[in-house]
Amino acid sequence: MGVRKGTKKSRKITDASYTSYKPKLLKLTEFDPRPIDLRKTSDVNMNSFSNNLKYDYVSTGKTSMWHTLIKYTYADYEISPERRGILKSQAWDIFTNIKQECCLSEKDVFMIPKTESQSESIEWKASRWFRITASTAKKANTLGNLLKSPPTDASLRKFQA
Q1: What is the C-alpha to C-alpha distance for residues 36 and 26, in angstroms, rounded to an integer?
Q2: Which of 25, 72, 78 is nearest to 53 (CA)?
Q3: For the chain, does the N or the C end have fewer beta carbons within 10 angstroms?
Q4: What CA–CA distance (Å, rounded) separates 161 from 157?
Q5: For the CA atoms of 137, 143, 145, 150, what is the dihedral angle to 10 degrees?
């Protein structure tokens, strides 16, 4: 009897263990040929690398995936509890100001300002009636295929379904 699909847990492939397979002592994904003392990187080196990535971005205009993964670390930077409270209150002030300006009603979340009358217009709905959207794309494709080839009973049933 097999394992039910709902009970499986996702794991890294390097952590997988198979009873019929004898694992190798050295995993290639964890292999590092550098000497042990050179395997570690300091914050200074990481900050320098991150800085170089920023300079490269300025000169070439292209971002690197490393730029999104590596952040500056500061050894002497610490936020006091008082300062943290001030920053949190300022962030909430900004949030409430934006919320008050943007969301006068629940409808405003879904509507662009000053377009409410347009979406209630019969002409607006009529002009969009025959547009192909994601919800009608399959039927439109099937209908297009029917128009290209002579219809059969099977193809007509497929379109009606």
Answers
A1: 16
A2: 72
A3: N
A4: 6
A5: 170
Give the model confidence (pLDDT) of 24-67 as tens digits: 666 677 778 888 888 888 888 888 998 998 888 888 888 888 87
C-alpha 93: how far from chain center: 28
pLDDT in tens, 55-93: 888 888 888 888 778 888 877 778 888 999 999 999 888
Question: Smallest Cα–Cα separation from 46: which of 37, 58, 54?
Answer: 54
What is the CA 106 to chain-centroid distance, rounded?
Answer: 26
Exposure string over 53-75, b if 16+ CB within 10 A, otherwise e? beeeeeeeeeeeeeeeeeeeeee
pLDDT of residue 88: 92
More confident: 106 or 112: 112
